[in-house]
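Case 798 in the screening queue. Each case pairs one protein sequence with one candidate compound; here the compound is 26V. For every case the pipeline is the same: read the inputs, emit a complex structure as tokens, and attach any notable structural observations.

Predict complex for case 798.
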Amino acid sequence: MKDTHLPTVQVLRDEIEHHLTYSMGKDARHASVYDWRMALSLAIRDRVVAPWFAATRKTWETGAKRVYYLSMEFLIGRMLEDAAINLGIRDTCREALEALGLDYEAVVENEPDAALGNGGLGRLAACYMESMASLGCPGYGYGIRYEHGLFKQKFEAGRQVELPEDWLRQRHPWEFERPESVYEIGFKGTVEMVDGRAVWTPGETVLAEACDMPIVGWEGKWANTLRLWSAKPTEQFDLARFNHGDYAAAAEPEALARTLSRVLYPDDTTYAGKELRLKQEFFLTSAALQDILRRHLAAELALEDLPDHVAIQMNDTHPAIAGPELVRLLMDVHGMEFEAAIDITVKCLGYTNHTLLPEALERWATYLMGTVLPRHMQIIEKIDSWHRAAHPGRPDYVGIVKHQEVRMGELAFITAHKVNGVSALHTELIRENLFPQLNRLHPGRIINQTNGITPRRWLRMANPALSHLITETIGAGWEADLDRLRALEPYIEDAGFLDQFMAAKRVNKEHLAHWIAQNQGITVSPDAMFDVQIKRLHEYKRQLLNILQTIGEWHEMRDNPQADYQPRVKIFGGKAAPGYVAAKQIIRLIKDVAEVINNDPAIGDRLKIVYPANYNVSMAERLIPAADLSEQISTAGKEASGTGNMKFALNGALTIGTLDGANVEIREQVGAENFFLFGLTAPEVTARREDPEHARHAILESQMLQDVLQMIAEGRFSPEEPGRYHDLVHTMWNSDYFLVASDFEAYRAAQKEVDAAFANRASWAKMAALNTARMGFFSSDRAIAGYMRDIWETRSAL
Ligand code: 26V
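Case 798 output:
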């Protein structure tokens, strides 16, 4: 975008005042921060519309292939500043607000997060939408406009309590309602054969109504649409029933519609087989596919040519009903034969797998699938026998329908032309452990696309101090070509540069220390090492390992107060699924331990534990730029990729981590000498579990771990209820599925290395700067370019 398109401070100021007056109906004298935030958002939004129209027009005119990213989750966070940065007007916004006597930070922070996702999978979808726009890849995201996003977390006496999230209570300035884009979605009912064709008569219907959010890319060169569906009743009120006095039943269709897009499922750990969840998945998928076919036909293209114009990506198996639904639409609505329909379907679909954990793999009972989606159940059986017939070598235990269950992973695999993992290690494990037989039948179908993160939000926006230094040092433009960060490497021999690098980190740490003091009432020193573990609570992520080691450190400090310790602030953040008892117990333990250690006068400033409530995207933006150490300590083989790990390293934190997920590739990129590795490898984990006594053996070999578990068991951290953690300690001794005990001593030793390294601030600075310089590979632009080349077969329209 040429600079001439950028507004002056005065122009922007006028636009803000215009919206305050005419969109908000407020006099500047009585306007609240909220009013100003709305006015600013609308002023920025106006500037997104032109590139958005231009991109849409160009896609129509050139007949470019479009990508459709189907996801049950988009974890976007705040939008105002992101849009301002991509339009190149952040500083102008700041100055315009200041000229109006307002505090820019306060206005930006007034915006609630759009929290339409649980964690990694949802945030990845948001990064990918931004990169598609930045690369000029014509595309749409399709999701659900949940009325309530991920629950808000608070702590009561150290325990997690969930509160409903309510982001739509305020006006949402980034969306455009599209009441004319509406589709009927059916459930249940019956299927009859009429003249050799299946006719499905649903027993329930709802409407899916579109709401569009423009997603503007870097420098405003392109913008795509995130289209979110809201459920609406087909009829407001059943008048006939009402007039018969059946008042409650008259409101039934409305009640179904209201619940459908009401709330995001907050459990990303265990698949529960809930009917409402299946309905949500079909609601999203069917609305998206009807919209895709409508757009294709509006261009007067033949359905046979769909794969030349349409690529559909399934973000995990949540939209995997897309296979059967596309076959159904092509057959039952458009009169195609099954063979042609499945051929087109496979060519259009791609499937990304995001987890190997068996408990998270979706399987629907055939009776439920047959009841909620009777026609789809028939088509699923048909696809399964078609596949069996095409592959006579297929073993009996392989297939979509087994043991009265529809396995969504197998369904997605068989209906997609490409299946991808999200890191090199994860992809290998998909090939070897998850789909070994299907991989044999379809060699080359499984490919890797290592995850990435958008450098615009996660460096340029979240870390202005470091961004300025980078631009000053290597020039502008690295945001769209992150490999250029390599040009920083020569400067690590330059003491002046390293000082500035550490000064940027220092500024971020001071801001965070201030925020912690204000919000948590805990004083922490910016001289201490900021050691951060932020992610959903899950046993495999091993927050427990972290807190056990922390207790060990404390124990050592008390025994040997004279020794030389590097002061540390241990920062935790993350939510547990509301029904995940073990995860909630780990939160409570961290909170209890924090209470004891933070108030131990013998320790003073040397060790502090901070666990702020309600970790979300905005909090990540605050914590990551201030981190010295990034905790990526999952049991090897369990974390598909991780993306937080990338955000930290890019912002100059060093990683302590296992050989899991993308840690493996991060270590390759930044250099083994700039990464604190510890722990069993994935094959060693498998081997270790062969010993049913592995936990007991490991504990008996570690005096420190015995001491730590003993303190917990004795109630040192829960004196008012000494038995609080008996179950937890018992599990540690007797099962410890995630091998906390087996990795404990290795983790401790690695933490000692971290301590020693941090003691030498000059060499630490070099290692940190090398991390930033070598993280270019993890830009989501690289990842999206890979999807475009290997899966979508599409090109940039720029
Ligand atoms: C699973 C389920 C199970 C059924 C009910 C609702 C629900 C909602 C979400 C999920 C998602 C679990 C998978 C997931 O989030 N995987 C994460 O994906 C990241 C992006 O690829 C990756 O970096 C993380 O390693 C991986 O855990």
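Case 798 observations:
- The CA atoms of residues 66 and 138 lie 5 Å apart.
- The longest helix spans residues 33-62.
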